[in-house]
Amino acid sequence: MHTDWSLFFGSFHPLIVHIPIGVLLFAALLNGIAAYKKNKALEFSAGLALLVGSLGSALAAVSGYFLSAGGGYDADVLFWHQWIGIAVAILGFCAWWIRTNRRKDILFLKTKLSTWLLCLCVLLIIAGGHLGGTLTHGNGYLTTHMPSFLKSLFPASPREPQQKLPPQLDSVRIYTNIIQPILHAKCVNCHNPNKQKGDLVLHSAEGIVKGGKSGNTLVPGDIDKSELIYRLTLDQDNSKFMPANNQPPLTTVELGLMKWWVASGADFNKNIAESKLDEKTKFLFAFYLGFDEESNKEIVLPEVAPADPGIVRQLKEMKLVVHSLTAQSNLLDVSFVMVQKSSPEQKKKILQKLLSLKEQVYYLDVSNCLLNNEEMKMIAGFPNLNKLELQKNNLTDEIVAPLETLTQLVSLNIGQNAITDKSIAVFKQMEGLQKINLWQTGFTEEGIRKLQDGGVAVEW
């Protein structure tokens, strides 16, 4: 029986294993230089590095064994990863022992044999490292973030379902086109055939139905008894919260869709038309998938490069809320809700950093942030902005003037601001504007009519 101490030691395996890898690769480099320059000192250093690396490999193999006792890994991948690690340690010791043999009559042979064993160690390290990556990140991890022009050359892996949406919203299959992509984006990293945390696999309908060791993973029609929903809705500080290990949680919309799917019976085959959704739920699905409500056709979202993960991480550290718009797009939904009470200098700093992702920002909520003219000019620099929340910012007609350059903007909430009919000219420059909220502003009924005559739906 594995004790808590053994599992504790096993958790250090990812830290321990990288040290002997580096040392053995360094030994191989020293060995090559020593052979080329016939340098005795380098030969000694290579032998010493080989010994240290082999000892470290043995320690890594032991810690890996204890880590595997926690379960949740594909047995075949684990088997080969484990024995490759053991083989590296054994071959490393053999190579070191051969090098230290004092028989001078076989000097050339032992040097050559030791070199070949060391080269074999390097090859095994590469193979074992790949299998370790597969155990940790799942099958296909090397192609997950591959550029689209390269990804098209490779078949879809279990972690990367390549789904194309039907042309009509009613034809969208709820599990295949919505629920499955959410699970693959947020859950399958730890619950796939190669890494079965909690004995749970979520990459397929069969795995979801089978469930994990906790039981009741999915109880169709009952979100309160479904362990999957329970884990997703826990406080993020809870040790049972999923996704674990500080992975991005489900967005509010994604969680809402998951809850609805389970509550409605968790059907794996029905499309939207067959599910007989009410208008509110149907709008939620249309919003998530990017379908136009009126035409019932798929909206063609701008194609942009993936956001720089380093910048996204920095923005989140600044307490900015940043989510992917959909699983199929690189566009972002950004909110200042957590930094509304920050100092003007801090909000300006965040906006300046956010401009580094100006191509990716599609939805932006900067309500109640008391923005000034300079910050409004920054917001006007987001060319793909589709929806903008600006309510309760003490805005005036002069401050909102820079927004006229947002020709792609479709929805604008600018209520609870001191703007008047003078801003009509600004809004008319927004060629794509379809909806605007002017609640508690200085707009007159005549000004409202002018906007409505221009084809803009006005809430006031």
What's the SSE blueprint?
Blueprint: H1 4-10, H2 13-37, H3 40-68, H4 75-100, H5 107-137, H6 148-151, H7 174-186, E1 191-192, E2 195-196, H8 205-210, H9 227-232, H10 252-263, H11 272-275, H12 279-289, H13 309-317, E3 321-324, E4 332-335, H14 344-354, E5 361-365, H15 373-379, E6 387-389, H16 397-400, E7 411-413, H17 424-428, E8 435-437, H18 445-453, E9 457-459
Parallel strand pairs: 4-5, 5-6, 6-7, 7-8, 8-9
Antiparallel strand pairs: 1-2, 3-4
Question: What's the number of helices?
Answer: 18
Oligomeric state of the chains present here: single chain
Rg over alpha carbons: 29 Å
Give the H and E element order. HHHHHHHEEHHHHHHEEHEHEHEHEHE
Within the largest sheet, what's the order of strands? 3-4-5-6-7-8-9
Poorly predicted runs are: 157-162, 293-298
How widely separated are the two ends?
68 Å
What is the residue-mean pLDDT, rounded to a whole number?
82
Q: What would you call the shape?
A: elongated
The residue fraction in helices comes out at 40-55%
Largest sheet: 7 strands, mixed
Structural class: alpha/beta
The amount of beta strand, in percent, is 5-15%
How many beta-strand segments?
A: 9
